[in-house]
Sequence to fold (136 residues):
Amino acid sequence: MRPAAVGRLEVVVTGREVRAELTPVAPLPSGLRLNLVVLGMGLTTRIEAGENAGREARHDFVVLARRQASGRERRWRMRLPEPETHGARRHALAAWVSAPGDPTPLQATGGFLPRPLPHEGEGSQGRRPVGHGAER
Fold:
C-alpha cells in the first residue's frame, strides 16, 4: 500500500543556519515538528574482545547530534546541531517532519554537509541545499 501524498520538504543550510519549508499537497495536522540529525560517516571502532579482537569496525550513518523544533506555517529556522565529530570523515544531515507526539516521519530528506563542518560562531560557507523530499 502506497502512503498518502504529503508534500515537498526543502532544507537549506547556510553556514550553521538551517531553514526548512514543507509545501503540503494535502491537509496536515497543526504543530508539525522538524527533526534534524547530524550523521557521521566513516567512523571506526577498534574491537577489543571476541572473535574479531584486534580488527576495526567501520560505521556510517551514526547519529552525532539531534535537534527538534516546532514551526509556524510549516516553516522552520534553527541552528545546525553542534556534534562531537568522533573522527567522522564526512557529515550528513537528515531532516524529517513529524506530528506532535508521534516521531513517525511524514516527509523526509537529507544530504551531505560541506567539508569542513562549520563550527558555532564561524562565518557563512554559502547557501547549500541539503535535500528536497519529493512529494510522496
User: Anything to note?
Assistant: The chain has one domain: 7-122.
